[in-house]
Amino acid sequence: MGIFSELNLPAGVITGENVLKLFEYAKKNGFAIPAVNCTSSSTINATLEAARDIKAPIIIQLSQGGSAFYAGKGLSNDGQRASIMGAISAAHHIRTISKDYGIPVVLHSDHCAEKLLPWFDGMLEADIEYFKKHGEPLFSSHMLDLSELPKEKNISICKEYLKKMAEINLFLEMEIGITGGEEDGVDNTDVHNSSLYTQPEDIWDVYRELSQISKMFTIAAAFGNVHGVYKPGNVRLSPGLLKEHQEYVRAKLNCEDDKPVFFVFHGGSGSVKDEIKEAVSYGVIKMNVDTDTQWAYWEGLKGYYESKKDYLQSQVGNPEGDDKPNKKYYDPRVFIRESEKSMAKRVKEACHDLGNVNRL
Ligand SMILES: [Zn+2]
């Protein structure tokens, strides 16, 4: 039993129907897959290692800023060039090594606001090129975040993109309603409370319009979630709203499936575990993980430095002797590895929270 035998998925990056099968399976079996934001081969490898160790599929996602970082901060990002090339480079890294980790990987790009569309277009071009050669897109899925625009405009631009994406079997993730907090330069920390909760009619409008084009889309709805970790404020997480959304869409479709929509949970960092579980039971199949794994990566390095401090002050000389070399302590492979181990541990915890363990 499990993903490999029941769904016949390959190891490595999966696309198209295989992603659809995986998301359907997760929804039916009541678990979700963490989408871990990665910015380097080190964070990617740590994520793959974690998922392999607990026998689970994983989603790796790249933000626009993370993609530019992957290409190198020394490169100009004029016209989104570094973000495009960085995302493509990361995609090839993931494609090259992920089969060896023996797990299915969904390769996704994160939030793309309207002003960043050239980044999206650049990745899409690479997908089309890759499709011509290999019969599948380079990425599995991309996200468009036009939640700042009026609903009609948000939906109509998503439709235009989904038409192009459907031709090469790409998934689209869209966002409706506003997730609080700040991410990649979009600051929603002072948005009015009511717009932090998407209404059922909004979900139906999105579902009705997009499902005419393709089944391959997911919706990030706002239910009081916030990007980043903040002190508890006046925003309250209401996962129960997702249940109402599902019921509303089910009634409109008059279908058997009590969870017709694939939901994505943004801003899950710092959430109470019970709220995460509840959201998953209402059809969340993907939860973004960024802030908590960033902290874990740093914490690994911090702990290492604190425990080896006296060996890290000069190239030669430590408590064992003035002539003792410290090379084996300051070799980046040693201290970066500590970050990787700590991050992998946090990725595993996210998988546990979402029920994404022993699924292969
Ligand atoms: Zn979001």
TrEMBL record:
Signal peptide: none annotated. Its cofactor is Zn(2+). One of its GO terms (molecular function) is fructose-bisphosphate aldolase activity. Its EC number is 4.1.2.13. The keyword Transport does not apply. Binds 2 Zn(2+) ions per subunit. One is catalytic and the other provides a structural contribution. Pfam families: F_bP_aldolase (PF01116). GO terms for biological process: gluconeogenesis; glycolytic process. Pathway: Carbohydrate degradation; glycolysis; D-glyceraldehyde 3-phosphate and glycerone phosphate from D-glucose: step 4/4. It is an enzyme of class 4 (lyase). One of its GO terms (cellular component) is cytosol. InterPro entries: Aldolase_TIM (IPR013785), FBA_II (IPR000771), Fruct_bisP_bact (IPR006411). It catalyses: beta-D-fructose 1,6-bisphosphate = D-glyceraldehyde 3-phosphate + dihydroxyacetone phosphate. Keywords: Glycolysis, Lyase, Metal-binding, Zinc. Belongs to the class II fructose-bisphosphate aldolase family. Catalyzes the aldol condensation of dihydroxyacetone phosphate (DHAP or glycerone-phosphate) with glyceraldehyde 3-phosphate (G3P) to form fructose 1,6-bisphosphate (FBP) in gluconeogenesis and the reverse reaction in glycolysis. NCBIfam families: cbbA, FruBisAldo_II_A, PRK09197.1. This is Fructose-bisphosphate aldolase.
